[in-house]
Every structure is written in C-alpha cells, then in structure tokens.
Specification:
five-stranded antiparallel sheet; elongated; Alpha-Beta Plaits; about 40% helix; alpha+beta; four-stranded antiparallel sheet
Length: about 160
C-alpha cells in the first residue's frame, strides 16, 4: 500500500552555514563598521544583535538572502519582536521544525476534502498519508504544494 510522510524540516547545517556567511558579510560592510552587529546561532533559534532597529532590518535582509541562496525557505523562520534598549537592539528568530498540530489538522482536512481514497493520520510532527493508488498520493502532493499554509512542506518516505 503506497504511503508518504509530510514533514517540515530545516537542515541545521545549512542554517549554520548561512549564519556564518551573514556574519562574514556584516564584518566587511561599511555601514556596520565599528559596530558589534552579529548573528548568534544556537540549536533552535538565531539572535540578531545590532545598535539600532534599522540595522536589525538590514541584518535580517542579509540573513534572508543567504538562507535563500542555501536553499532554506524563509517561511520556516519566525521573527520575534525586537528588544530596543539604549544603544543595543536584539531580535530572536525561531527556526520552525516539524508540522504543528493546527497545520497538521488543516492538511488532514484538505486531504479529506479531495474525496480521494486516502487515509491521513497525524504522527507527532508529521502527517502520514496512505492510499491504494500511487497517483492519488501524487495528486495530494500537487494540491498541497498549491496551498499557502505558512510553512514549507517536504514529502518524504514515498513508498509503494
């Protein structure tokens, strides 16, 4: 019986590479000369550090460009509110991993609304879809790619 898993994953190594490239660009840019503007990276989030709100926006633009070049969808980044103090500004950006329950329920509802003979079940942070025909699974992939769910989806473990 054919099946596939619908997930939302971000390659942590590519995120680290994009952050390193962004920090290198920040060190060489003239408008950031003499400032301690940088991007700190830990397991699940990024912290942008600059002197002003405008510089935070510039750092975020640089980061988005580098992430896009490395093949990371920027929909998987969720920016928090900037924290502005006297001469420092910080912003935390969370890297979203996995399909959360609300979006998983939307995916299951979309699959049921197609009237195809498929079963969709939520399994942790992924959705497993099984059916009798491989073509039905491919139709579901096409339908979900057209939807705007606010999250990049990958389709893995496609098995017959």
């Amino acid at each position: 019986m054919p099946s596939l898993d619908i997930v939302s994953e971000v390659d942590a190594h590519e995120v680290a590479n994009a952050v390193d490239q962004s920090n290198r660009e920040l060190a060489t840019r003239f408008d950031f000369k003499g400032t301690d503007a940088k991007i700190e990276h830990n397991a699940e989030n990024l912290t942008l550090i600059a002197e002003t709100d405008f510089q935070l926006q510039q750092i975020q633009d640089i980061l988005h460009k580098k992430m896009t070049k490395r093949g990371i969808d920027i929909l998987s980044l969720e920016a928090g509110k900037p924290e502005l103090q006297h001469k420092s500004a910080k912003q935390v950006i969370t890297v979203k991993q996995g399909v959360d329950t609300d979006i998983a329920k939307k995916i299951v509802k979309l699959i049921k609304d197609t009237k195809l003979k498929l079963q969709a079940s939520i399994q942790g942070e992924q959705v497993r879809v099984t059916g009798k025909k491989r073509d039905d699974l491919q139709q579901v992939i096409a339908i979900l790619k057209q939807q705007k769910l606010g999250l990049p989806l990958q389709f893995i473990n496609f098995r017959d």
